[in-house]
Design brief:
Number of strands: 11
Bound molecules: flavin-adenine dinucleotide
Number of domains: 2
CATH superfamily of the largest domain: Nucleotide-binding domain of ferredoxin-NADP reductase (FNR) module
CATH class of the largest domain: Alpha Beta
Number of helices: 5
Largest sheet: 6 strands, antiparallel
Radius of gyration: 17 Å
Structural class: alpha/beta
CATH topology of the largest domain: Rossmann fold
Strand order of the largest sheet: 4-3-6-1-2-5
Distance between the termini: 26 Å
Shape: globular
Strand content: 25-35%
Length: 241
Amino acid sequence: MAVPKTAEVVLARTVGDHTRLLELEIAEPLGFLGGQYMIIDSGLVASNGKTIKRAYSLISSDDDQRRVQLAVQHIPNGPGSDYIHGLEPGAKVSFSGPWGKFYLREDTPGSTLVFSTDTGVTAALGLIQSMRFFPLLDETMFIWLRPSVDYFLPEEYVRGLIPAECCNVRIGTIPATNHDARLPAVRTVLRQILFGPALTRAFVSGDGAVNVALLDDLVSAGVPVSNENVESFFNMPKKSA
Ligand SMILES: Cc1cc2nc3c(=O)[nH]c(=O)nc-3n(C[C@H](O)[C@H](O)[C@H](O)COP(=O)(O)OP(=O)(O)OC[C@H]3O[C@@H](n4cnc5c(N)ncnc54)[C@H](O)[C@@H]3O)c2cc1C
């Protein structure tokens, strides 16, 4: 049962044309692990009578449990992201969480892949900045693929959040969401990685349609990975997949 909590917006700024960065202050430590998300209750009610609540991954490090950050893309006609984009400093936000299983559970040394597409980069950034991830950073490869260079967050901003110990960073572009060429393009990138050193673990976040394909390829290649290492933000895979 979700316990409603309240946070105050202490910083809010718009980046590019479509992204809102928020810093929230929470009275009690949140108790999250890097990679997890919160569910924000907009207080709005949809025409079907359901309250509009949306999940947002924490983009800041779990070493600060009282001031956390979110990055939210504006989705055209999207009531949840519209609500977030209207928030200004001083606003009170109702939320529940932390939620999710997308975090590091074991730290056996070895090569780690953190692979994100689209807005899924927020979960990847939360994960890679987490305190428990630190010993793995020098053997971690961080990949972010998105439809264009001006999509969501500037490359410099994302690079600035990746800890310096992680030197293997690749940020690139892929065809747009739901384009036929998207899956083959992403799979080609993964295939190149799988030619390299054996992976001890992998995390995948973002477009659910991409995630299903990548999880399949990782399992086929013998990488120890399960649904818990995958976070889908949209194009949700069917529960049985
Ligand atoms: C675990 C989790 C974490 C998330 N973290 C973030 C985050 O950190 N930042 C963020 O911006 N969003 C994040 N999302 C997506 C977010 O929860 C909402 O789906 C999004 O803000 C759209 O809500 P809306 O009410 O504005 O639009 P809706 O009317 O709910 O959405 C319209 C459609 O857009 C789809 N959609 C959502 N995001 C995208 C996208 N990036 N590209 C294409 N289609 C999309 C939705 O699935 C839906 O089909 C996350 C989702 C999940 C499940």
